[in-house]
Amino acid sequence: MAGEKGYGIDSTVASTVASEVDEVIKLGAQVAMVIGGGNIFRGLSAAASGMERAAADYMGMLATVMNALAMQDCLEKKGMETRVMSAITMREIAEPYIRRRAERHLEKGRVVICAAGTGNPYFSTDTAAALRAMELKAEALLKATKVDGVYDKDPKLHDDAVIFQKITYLGILDRKLKVMDSTAVSLAMENHIPIIVFNLAKSGNIKRVVTGEGIGTVVSEGANG
What is this structure's pTM? Predict the structure, then answer.
């Protein structure tokens, strides 16, 4: 959400993402989004600086709600119907997350924006995304990031980093690759939900992933390669 600013909400980036989600909705897909808050406040970083971990994590969850409301505004300006559903109750600005209600929204063609993570400290946005994917019976979990996929080492630090087209859940866990936290990967593995890691910064990539163009990295039970 911050784009090249590194902090805050870049309206151009948010609008671009909204336009791409609109294209996917027009294809007939059901879309649930899980929004992070690292562009505003990162709980783990604050905890590392001495803040009590639970308090820092709750602050991070509140940051995700701000991002969710910004995304809702962008989506609705494109003509889509949306619902922000928060794991932390705040009825004046969002619905409480209730699985069956979320399913009904999806059936009616609304974009469901899941905010406030799992509602519990010590769990990341990645874990919240895996949990919501399971609850809503998603066909795939799309991990939008700043790099083209999963690499054998950090491509920002190593010019010789090699990207995987496919890798197993255990390959991620055994190599301790930092694409998603281990809890999220384990949840996806136990429930056989493929994870597709792709670069959000490249225009049109959301539609390419949904239509099966083969970009990014697929994390599943298949072979590494």
Answer: 0.90
